[in-house]
Amino acid sequence: MENDDVPDPAEGPQQRPQSLMLAFFGNHVLGEGDLCVSSGSVIDVLGRVGVGEQAVRSTLTRMVNRGLLSRQREGRRMYFGLTPHARRILEDGHARIWTRGAVDDAWDGTWTLLGFSLPDSWKSRRHDLRSRLAWSGFGPLYSGLWIAPGEVDVTAVVEELDLSDHVKVFRAQAVEFTDVDRMIRDTWDLESIAARYTSFDARWTPHLATGTGSDADADADPIGTRLLLVSEWLWTIRADPRLPARHLPPDWPAVPAQETFRRVAARTEEPARSMAREVLETTRSR
Fold first, then answer.
1. Average pLDDT, the chain
2. Angle at CA 241, nearest 5°, toward 104 and 231?
3. What is the pTM of this model?
4. Which residues, 6 or more positions from 240, have their beta carbon under 8 angstroms from its beta carbon?
5. Given pLDDT bands bounded at 50, 70 and 90, which one contains residue 90?
6. Going along the chain, which residue ranges are E strands?
């Protein structure tokens, strides 16, 4: 998953086509084996959430070139499926959403520390490393020393970026005089993270009010509603390292926002799946 740069998180995410595309394939392809979906179906569904045909086509091409999607032609139609690399990304996102949750209530006091030193000319690889670390729950304690709560396995990240010779990883616990609350505030922007959760909750709670306009919209187009729901929730949790509950403010908004997400998700799951069976043109990969 990549970070989306948004000026004001309280205003909500400005979803990029690739983020929506990944959410689409996570919703409708990830758990379906070797399923492929036609480009026309992708254009139809992403068009429901405001992405134009040309943007969809160019995003599909870029994702094929980046090794995220496979492509095969059947007659006049082009079909797209997930590569092993994309499956790993989506499976990690699925676990982040449905298994680990938004708050760590069982933290054991351990931290994972990662130190790195890269040549000045490696700007792109440094950016990639920092983006992957942020998604994995790390924050910059110092410029070349990043920290994450709990035991975090970054082996795949380091090996994929070919940085094993430039990265050192440790497990540690803070000594008594370390002010962990202050360290967390200095390392992560808690106000920005909280604003994402508050904004998400405010946008999606109306979908739970039976008989409202928002609710009617969700019933009319569950596949589009669920696509937006999942992609916005991933945007919301992307900047959150799942900090220990004991070191968070008592009114931390992640828990109510997560409850809203899961209730809307439960409401849209079967209608979206049923609509997908009707509107998606699919085939099996060869």
1. 88
2. 105
3. 0.84
4. 102, 193, 196, 197, 254
5. very high
6. 35-38, 69-74, 77-82, 110-116, 139-142, 145-149, 167-173, 282-284
